Amino acid sequence: MKIVLPPLAPRARVWVALSGGLDSTALLHLLHESGVPNLRAVHVHHGLQAAADGWARQVRGQCRALDVPLSVRRVRVDPRHGGGPEAAAREARYAAFAAMLKAGDLLATAHHRDDQAETVLLRALRGTGIAGLAAMPVLAAFGAGRLWRPLLDQPRAELHRFAERRGLQWIDDPHNQDARYARSYLRTELMPRLGAHWPQAAASLARLAQRAADAEALVAALASQDLLALRVGDGWSVAGLLALDRVRRRNALYHAWVAMGWPAPAEARLARLDEEILRARGDAQPLLRHESGEVRRFRDVLHFLPHLPPVPDQVLAWPARRRALTLPAGLGELRLSRPSPLPLQVGFARGGERLKPAAGRHSRSLKQLCQEAGIPPWVRVRMPLLLAGDELLAIAGYWRSAKAVELGLDPEWQTTLAGAGSTGFSGKTG
Binding site annotation covers 417? Predict the structure, then answer.
């Protein structure tokens, strides 16, 4: 078996995810023999079995014999996880891995061709799409570093032969043979039967994964072109999306969704987005909330948003001579180009606020100003209002009264709030 190490930064570390089982033990020795620089190992102690302490001691012995630094990470597995104990343990394990990686680091896992075949089959049985059939890539972004699977083209049998030739000792986790778990059932019951009838079954499924990955690259490129062409500020043109045929539109929506870092949406969720959000009345403001964020439509623009911070209900004091004020709920910061000559307050919209912009003839309601400027409603209720007692001086980053101009107050709102920049305002308007 030959290891092809991806390009590494000079001080990057290569971590082996070491459970102590056959596969990861073989990988550790293979990388060590290959002279991989800055090699380290990490073992996750889930605390789920009585033997877990003994397994940690065994991997310490393995690493000590090779002079490979080892980090043992203890995690808490959520027993209420909706995906079951396997999913809960995996989530906790990968969270621990991600937390320890620094920029440029590699996390090497021992996934092999048989694992790939099992993944393809499991996902196919769950009704996955092309992206799911692509299964596991050799190299992928992960945490601050990358996830590397150098053994994806190797069958499990080859790893077993390697371990036996080296006289290696490994841990046999009884959970891996427990057919109550889906992957264990595939590994112990179904895959051997498939292999008996079709000896190349695992190799064929792995090839399917590669072909699906190639196809996914093409449809992802098409989605990228469509989304770029339809981009409007922080969102996408609803009319433009509806002009696409159904398959192409759903493809664009799917890739916009996963680009947010959200779990891949089920077909039913995409259909709901298509029917209830895109096709809503033009004056409607439909909303689709889900576990990772929310989808909103404002006028002719579709917005994919993270969970929005709560709307603050307090009034903040901004002492004179201070140029900056941190806002609550992660709404960013207000800054003045020069200190205020008088103490100020900062509040948020409660309804009924009015302002006469310095360049205007009449006072206008905040709602009117925002509607005419095309400011989305979720931004409107979170916009900081600059006050002097009961007098509204400015809507930070947007409008100032004549008195604010006279006092030299030009509050700039520095925020990452989604949609706050979609109107094209750069702040400091009259």
Answer: no
Looking at the structure, tell me whether residues 255 and 143 fall in a common domain: no
> Is 22 annotated among the ligand-binding residues?
yes
23 is in an annotated binding site: yes
Instruction: Give the pLDDT confidence of 37-63 residue by residue, as tens digits.
Output: 999 999 999 877 788 899 999 999 999
Does residue 115 form part of some domain? yes
Q: What is the mean pLDDT of residues 273-283?
A: 91
Cβ(292)–Cβ(304) below 8 Å: no
- Judge whether 363 is annotated as a binding position: no
| Domain carrying residue 165 | 14-206
Q: Which two tokens stand for residue 108?
A: 């090497």
**Are 190 and 55 contained in the same domain?**
yes
pLDDT exceeds cutoff 50 at 5: yes
- On whether the CB atoms of residues 58 and 196 are closer than 8 A, the answer is no
Q: Could you give the angle at the alpha carbon of 384 between the alpha carbons of 378 and 385, nearest 5°?
A: 120
Does 386 carry a binding-site annotation? no
Task: Tell me which of 306, 327, 343 is where a domain ends.
Answer: 306
- In whole angstroms, give the CA distance from residue 159 to residue 292: 39
Q: Where are the alpha helices (DSSP H) in 267-376?
A: 267-272, 366-373
242: domain CATH number is 1.20.59.20
**Do both 166 and 99 map to the same domain?**
yes
Query: Domain for residue 421, yes or no?
Result: no
* Secondary structure letter of residue 276 according to DSSP: I
φ, ψ of residue 268 in degrees (nearest 5)? -65, -35
Half-sphere exposure of 39 (CA within 13 A, CB side): 20
Exposure string (b/e) for 330-368, b if CB count within 10 Å is 16 or more?
Answer: ebbebbbeeebeeebbbbbbeeebebebbeeeeebebbe
Ramachandran region, residue 48 (left: φ > 0; alpha: ψ -120 to 50; beta: rest): alpha
Element housing 294 (H / E): strand 293-298
- Average pLDDT of the segment spanning 8-29: 95
pLDDT above 50 for 241: yes
Q: Is residue 181 part of a domain?
A: yes
